User: What shape does this take?
Amino acid sequence: MSENNGDKPWGGRFSEATDAFVEEFTASINFDQRFYRQDIEGSVAHSAMLAKVGLLTEDEKQQIHDGLAVILKQADQGEINWSVALEDVHMNVEARLTDLIGDVGKKLHTGRSRNDQVATDIRLWLREQIDFILNELKRLQRGLVNLAEQEIDTILPGFTHLQVAQPISFGHHLLAWYEMLVRDVERLEDCRKRVNTLPLGAAALAGTTYPIDREYTAELLGFDRIANNSLDAVSDRDFAIEFTATASIIMVHLSRFSEELVLWASAQFDFIDLPDRFCTGSSIMPQKKNPDVPELVRGKSGRVIGDLISLITLMKSQPLAYNKDNQEDKEPLFDTVDTLMGSLRAFADMMPHIKTNKEAMRMAAMQGFSTATDLADYLVGKEMPFRDAHEVVGKAVGYGVEHKKDLSEMSLDELQQFSSVIGEDVYEVLTLEGSVSARDHLGGTAPNQVRLQIATAREQLG
Ligand code: ARG
Assistant: This one.
């Protein structure tokens, strides 16, 4: 590098070289090289637009395109030595282009700034990542629906406060997870609309004096809209915050699934068996098979929430327009995408291999008086007000606790101690199947309804 920073694209006004540490400290190339493809794609479109409006000749445009194609290939093959002295991916690509094709390369930056360039690159990159994530989310949804279909008639206790509440279909439980993901998909698709907005043309902050054609650039890059305000276009990162917020909600959902899988795989519940290849052992306790994948996903939810906090705090109080603070948007965003993709992949891979222990689920549903509400509803059917019925069943449960008997295990005489309206027909409602199939309305746990929900889900998934 020359004494006065003459090698830097912005070196003109400087009279001394950048401090070596400051150069390292302010550079982003170590992480923003990750979107060299989008940077090149943006430059291809920008130069095509410049040629269209007469700011480049066809020949100049062609030289630029050929040069960029070479750089893309070299970068794909890992042949580029990204330079910290050139600060970021934008200046690295531009400098390399000029090395390759000579002075024509210096015309590429006409009518643009790194400020609108970087905003464009991130949006192009994130748009693609959102599509990958949507695919993975849908793969997981399919896995859930397939498992739910196998488990429509499997009964387990539904819990509130992690205490046995009422018997439910395991298929129904799995579809609760599916529904959470439906909303996650919707949120992500909605976020994608705002991500897919073109900042290029905003230049540094105020727009440019050249007769640019932003519609054309947007069309070439597949953007649905063009940012209306140049100051806003180069500065806000709300699209990244929104994405990370959506990702945080997905991770919170995955952490809830994880928690249940961890509980269910324990010897105390023993509801499921996770495939060996998704678990690890202990170096000291030979009997252990640990549910590492769900545990890690549960833990990783914290990282993504942390990334959201980083990004939202990064944006807080920033005056218009671009500030160097915004260079800090990339690492949390990358981390969110990587963590989310990894977690979704692990879950989607694991889902088809989860084995259920129907007997253990059934036994658990038999304990804890899970059909107590059904007995109360039965009494209401015999004209007893619900509050009185609640009281009667409470007493019956107290008796059951004392004598270690489920309601369904009590004789008619025993049950009639609590209310004379109880008849032989009570046993139909005290069975697990009777209880589950009685909740036969939209959103209920009756197998009929679960079947309908599965059909709806299959339609949604296409
Ligand atoms: N590396 C920068 C970033 O990530 C690119 C934009 C730099 N713009 C500037 N005016 N220094 O934000």
